């Protein structure tokens, strides 16, 4: 069944970018994920939806993990993934003020 939703299109673009960054062919990813190359091609092009288990296998074939996170935290995760002006700056620090008894994460 073909589904050309925005979600499948976006997922396909992400998979293609990850595959190219890893220097792999569609055939290599498909073989590692245990699916056919035409099936992987359809997923990567956003022309087909895939089962969760297939997406997990494809992600792992690309050296990634598939994660489900609450929608409410998506903006925070996206902010952490965005490059900052200072690439060496940690996402969180554990500075202690005189008034703090325990260090904690600070944005």
TrEMBL record:
Bias (Polar residues) ranges: 1-11
Stretches assigned to the HTH cro/C1-type domain: 15-69
Region (Disordered): 1-37, 80-107
Family annotation (SUPFAM superfamilies): lambda repressor-like DNA-binding domains
GO molecular function term, any single one: DNA binding
InterPro entries: Cro/C1-type_HTH (IPR001387), Lambda_DNA-bd_dom_sf (IPR010982)
Name by which UniProt lists this protein: Cytoskeleton protein RodZ
Lineage: Bacteria, Pseudomonadati, Pseudomonadota, Alphaproteobacteria, Hyphomicrobiales
Recorded name of the encoding gene: rodZ
């Amino acid at each position: 069944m073909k589904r050309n939703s925005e979600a499948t299109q976006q997922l396909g673009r992400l998979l293609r970018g990850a595959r190219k960054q890893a220097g792999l062919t569609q055939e290599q990813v498909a073989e590692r994920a245990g699916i056919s190359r035409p099936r992987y091609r359809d997923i990567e092009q956003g022309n087909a939806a895939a089962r969760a288990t297939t997406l997990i296998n494809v992600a792992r074939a690309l050296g990634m993990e598939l994660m489900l996170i609450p929608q409410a935290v998506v903006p925070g995760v996206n902010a952490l993934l965005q490059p900052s002006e200072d690439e060496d700056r940690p996402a969180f620090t554990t500075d202690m003020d005189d008034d703090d008894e325990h260090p904690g994460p600070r944005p």
